[in-house]
Design brief:
With 44 residues, the protein is mainly α. The chain has 2 helices and no strands.
Length: 44
């Protein structure tokens, strides 16, 4: 599933950004939303 791998890469990139010393709220929100979307897809 190519789209799935691209989505996970996007999420992990945002997670790495939030792991920085000063996490940006926007990056955290994007990472969190991405994780929710991935979890929702896997449950189906």
């Amino acid at each position: 599933n190519q789209s799935g791998s691209v989505g996970s890469d996007f999420v992990f990139d945002n997670i790495e950004l939030t792991a920085g010393p000063i996490p940006e709220p926007s990056s955290f929100a994007l990472g969190l939303a991405g994780m929710m979307m991935l979890l929702g897809r896997r449950k189906r």
